[in-house]
Write a sequence for this structure.
């Protein structure tokens, strides 16, 4: 009969054996200069130690490698060395309140909110003010616009650069309402639905007129820093770019920054 102590020793030894089977040091050395690692690459690596290793075992080992921070997922079945770095922006109290007001008024509406302040930290030239971007389902933009316009100023619906230049009060926060692309990648932060970092990058690259202050060399540094401080899922990024019918354009822009 196993005692509590002997069971702990058994569990510890099992974990040690499992970790040993990962061959972490050799794995790191093998893939240190590889930009992307496929499941087949991992399978081939472990076949050298066990020619009869099963796919289910490889899937478990990939899970352990991610869990241990040895590799990070950058696409569907694609990995690279390094610990997963999640994009976790700070949603300001003002934007949290704004989001909750919108959800109270439009409870069944899919709504996303974010601030350009999140990417300004990665720029060479920091803007004097920031925009709050609210994206809602197609067909509901005007209702949201009129609702917000009744409770505060400096709200714009799909504005052009000229409209913002003429009418926006740059001394106050600006709210811009846009159409939310179907199946856009979103995430929840502090019970607020916000865009993923992949979506933000694509929008900055595509919507050049709206994000005029975030172009040129500043966009280069935003992309570079986004890849450095976050795990960017390439398949998510390109899938959304494709939804916007700008996949090739976005892919070339990302490649220009040596982050493909």
């Amino acid at each position: 009969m196993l005692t509590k102590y002997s069971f702990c020793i058994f569990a510890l030894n099992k974990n040690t054996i499992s970790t040993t089977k990962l061959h972490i040091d050799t794995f790191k050395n093998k893939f240190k200069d590889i930009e992307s690692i496929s499941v087949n690459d991992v399978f081939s690596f472990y076949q050298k130690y066990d020619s009869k290793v099963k796919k289910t075992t490889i899937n478990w080992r990939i899970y352990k490698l991610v869990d241990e921070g040895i590799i990070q997922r950058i696409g569907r079945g694609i990995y690279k060395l390094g610990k997963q770095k999640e994009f976790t922006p700070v949603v300001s109290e003002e934007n949290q309140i704004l989001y909750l007001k919108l959800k109270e008024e439009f409870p069944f509406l899919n709504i996303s909110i974010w601030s350009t302040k999140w990417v300004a930290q990665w720029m060479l030239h920091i803007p004097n003010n920031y925009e709050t971007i609210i994206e809602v389902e197609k067909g509901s933009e005007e209702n949201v616009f009129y609702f917000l316009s009744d409770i505060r100023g400096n709200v714009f619906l799909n504005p052009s650069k000229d409209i913002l230049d003429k009418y926006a009060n740059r001394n106050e926060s600006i709210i811009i309402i846009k159409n939310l692309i179907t199946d856009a990648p979103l995430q929840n932060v502090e019970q607020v639905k916000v865009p993923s970092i992949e979506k933000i990058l694509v929008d900055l690259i595509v919507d050049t007129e709206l994000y005029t202050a975030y172009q040129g060399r500043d966009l280069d540094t935003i992309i570079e820093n986004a890849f450095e401080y976050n795990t960017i899922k390439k398949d998510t990024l390109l899938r959304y770019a494709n939804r916007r019918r700008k996949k090739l354009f976005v892919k070339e822009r990302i490649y220009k920054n040596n982050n493909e």
Observations:
- The domain at 93-256 is CATH 3.30.460 (Beta Polymerase; domain 2).
- The chain has two domains: 4-81, 93-256.
- Residues 4-21 form the longest helix (18 residues).
- The first strand starts at residue 37 and ends at 38.
